[in-house]
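As agreed, record minuted below.
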Amino acid sequence: MPLLISLFIFQVQNLLQQMQSRFQTMSESIISKIDEMGNRIEELEQSVNELKSEMGMEGSPSPSAPPKVKIDPKSTDDSA
């Protein structure tokens, strides 16, 4: 009976080590992808600033979404 318990403990420890190794690999991959995305964003920002500079728009604010119209539910309520 103690042999079965020892074998079970060994298998559980082995499984936990494999899971930890996979988790570490995934974590490193995610961090690498985040760093890569950050670098690409910085490159895009630099390209946009260069284009703005070429067009003489250095001081211009960046384009933004048009303002959203807020609908007041009280004004559209016909029951009043």
